Automatic annotation (TrEMBL):
The keyword Metal-binding does not apply. InterPro entries: RUS_fam, UVB_sens_C, UVB_sens_RUS_dom. Keywords: Membrane, Transmembrane, Transmembrane helix. The chain crosses the membrane at residues 159-185, 206-224, 230-247. This is RUS family member 1.
Amino acid sequence: MDTLICRETYGSKSDPRDYLCKNDGTISESRSGNRGLSSILHFLRVVFLPQGYPDSVSKDYLEYQIWDTVQAFSSSITGTLSTHAMLKGVGVGDESASAAAATITWLLRDGTSMTGRIAFAWYQGSSLDSDAKRWRLFADIMNDAAMCIELVSVFFPQYFVIIACVSSLFKSMVGVAGGATRAALTMHQARRNNMADVSAKDGSQETLVNLAALFVGLIITPIASKNILLTWSLFFLCTCLHLYANYRAVTCVVMETLNQNRFHILVQDYLHSSQFSMSGPDAVNSREPVIWRLSRPLKLNLGVPFRTVAQSMRDLEMCLQSNGQEKFC
């Protein structure tokens, strides 16, 4: 009779492997359950989920990825519709269109995008980490606005260059805000110093979704291109689904670090509590606004320049007296 030596698992949801000692002294491997189904599920888990899932990621990982998948699919569909409008506007299929004019339009569009990326990163780069959820939602709203502008371009061909540049400017902000906040959220999800693995598997999931949306786009584009009402109906439905899925995605994330909004909620609950109890991350994150900032009567500025603290030597002496124990160097 074979004797069980050990059982090997990696993560609480992995398929266990039993190692048995046979009568002749050799060691054999055995897996329980339906071998065919188990192999397929194991393959999908290895390809699309981080190693060690779910123990290697945050508890909100699955819910976030589900809603992220929904928003990515709907965004790809609207992107297909807007791309068709842009190609039509630039002259694809028009015998009178000039290749030189189309090239200049595309160069102006790319130049506007590059300038916008630099300007937006300079203006808002420092707040993308602390307010990752709010800026992630902002990026998706701007992305939908950009695609809406691109769809409108077919009605105003004389202003196509301006419309293309404005759309590109919006998408440049989407690229900066979306990329930076994705990195912040990936850092939150990774729990075993596996940020690269989580990011890579997120990319695989998004690629699969975009591939599925591509096939759907191949079916609907020939139909929608001949019907303006159908095009705008699809765009409206997919945009609503996209925004709703993004809102659900960012609101399900439970950040365990403090920003100004979460700190304000935490202190407010502590001061208003009869027993001076501290709220947990789930309670604080559920009340964190992801669209507007909390209104705060007292404004705190961190890391301000020296000249805003002391305008004279008297101001400096008063600051030093009231903070004599602090080490400023």
